[in-house]
Design a protein that fits this description.
Blueprint: E1 3-8, H1 14-22, E2 30-37, E3 41-42, E4 45-46, E5 49-54, H2 58-73, E6 76-84, E7 86-88, E8 93-101, H3 104-121, E9 124-130, E10 133-136, H4 141-148
Parallel strand pairs: 1-6
Antiparallel strand pairs: 2-8, 3-4, 5-7, 5-9, 6-8, 9-10
Helix pairs in contact: 2-3, 3-4
Length: 162
């Protein structure tokens, strides 16, 4: 199953990435796409930018580990994970997850699983710039809780050929 994992500074084109994943494929019945976008406000305060830092090599390996787990849980035919780093302005894309399968259930579940793990476990550090001041964003308990629900095995993994 093809998997693309990229960490990059520059913005990505979600439609072009979806087209690349599906090009020439007639076995895909569903592609679920999630694009995370930098918000313009946090707790009512305008955000000037986010700066994301990562541990090169380690971040890609950790994302690949979770992609492999998604592949073992659901009948996937393709996955793309693109995560940006550096300074990101409001309205710009931060992360893209594409999960393709013969059936929507597997694609939806895999995309949600991957986003929960990216948000809570991927080695990225986020700094928010508000009114000229910067602060590091603390991990949220709700993100950890989202990951906890995936500890159970996936119910009824379907074969991609079904």
């Amino acid at each position: 199953m093809p998997a693309t994992i990229r960490l990059q500074r520059e913005p990505f084109d979600a439609a072009a990435e979806t087209a690349a994943l599906t090009r020439g494929r007639t076995d895909m019945g569903a592609v679920v796409a999630f694009t995370g976008i930098c918000r313009g406000a946090e707790d009512g305060a305008p955000i000037a930018a986010l700066t994301l830092e990562h541990y090169p090599g380690m971040a890609e390996a950790e994302i690949a580990r979770h992609v492999e787990e998604a592949q073992s849980r659901w009948a996937l035919l393709g996955v793309t994970v693109i995560h940006r780093f550096g300074r990101i302005a409001p309205g710009e894309p931060i992360v893209l997850v594409l999960a393709a399968s013969s059936h929507r259930h597997d694609a939806f579940a895999a995309a949600e699983f991957l986003m929960d793990y990216l948000k809570a476990r991927a080695p990225f550090w986020k700094q928010v710039e508000v009114a000229g001041a910067t602060s590091w964003v603390e991990a949220k308990q709700s993100d950890d809780g989202a990951v906890e629900r995936w500890r159970e095995p996936a119910p009824g993994r379907r074969d991609a050929a079904e």
